[in-house]
Amino acid sequence: MTVQHLPRVVWDGARAFVRAARGPDFFDFVWAARELLGKDTYTELIATRERLTEADVRAGGDPSAIDMEAGRWRVRLDELLHARPDLTSAVVDLTARSCPADHAGLRRGPGGG
After folding, report:
1. Which string of DSSP letters, residue by residue, matches the chain?
2. Whole-angstrom distance, CA of residue 20 vs CA of residue 1
3. To the nearest whole percent, how much of the chain has pLDDT over 70?
4. Where does residue 73 rank: exposed (0-12), middle (13-18), buried (19+ CB within 10 A)?
5. Within 10 A of 67 (CB to CB), how many other CB atoms are there?
6. pLDDT at 110
7. In this predicted model, what pLDDT tens digit does every residue of 57-102 receive, in sequence order?
8. Per-residue pLDDT at 111 exceeds 50
9. Between 20 and which of 14, 29, 69, 110 could a Cys-Cys bridge form, CB atoms 3.0 to 4.6 Å apart?
10. Could you give the dihedral angle defined by the CA atoms of residues 61, 62, 67 and 69, in that order, rounded to the nearest 10 degrees?
11. Cα 81 to the chain's mean position, in Å?
């Protein structure tokens, strides 16, 4: 049995969800998130993508928008996993889907950890 460090799962998940919201495989990711975590997560991911797209148009890719979304997801996932610890493996799964190389610890440094 693997012990998960919840703050790490939450933070890695938050960054992965934001990365996925900007990625080319967003619709596959968001559907998987809906299946694993429910409709509320799906709806929030759609909203995240919309806010990031608006920030790109308005400010040419404002990095603070990415940071703000990651912070929102950290809070959301923290609340979700405290209420439903049984969903921890689903968040870990989605994190790995977002960027398998990062999740496996194969890429660290700028953009990778």
Report:
1. -PPP-HHHHHHHHHHHHHHHHHSTTHHHHHHHHHHHH-HHHHHHHHHHHHHHHHHHHHHSS-HHHHHHHHHHHHHHHHHHHHH-GGGHHHHHHHHHHH-HHHHTT---STTT-
2. 28
3. 83
4. buried
5. 12
6. 38
7. 887 767 789 999 999 999 999 999 999 999 999 999 999 998 755 5
8. no
9. 29
10. -70
11. 14
> Which amino acid does the sequence have at 71?
G
Question: What mean pLDDT value characterizes the chain?
Answer: 86
CA 12 from centre of chain: 7
* Rounded Cα–Cα distance for residues 86 and 91 (Å): 10
pTM: 0.83
Q: Are 25 and 52 in contact (CB under 8 A)?
A: no
Copy the structure tokens of residue 20. 């996925």
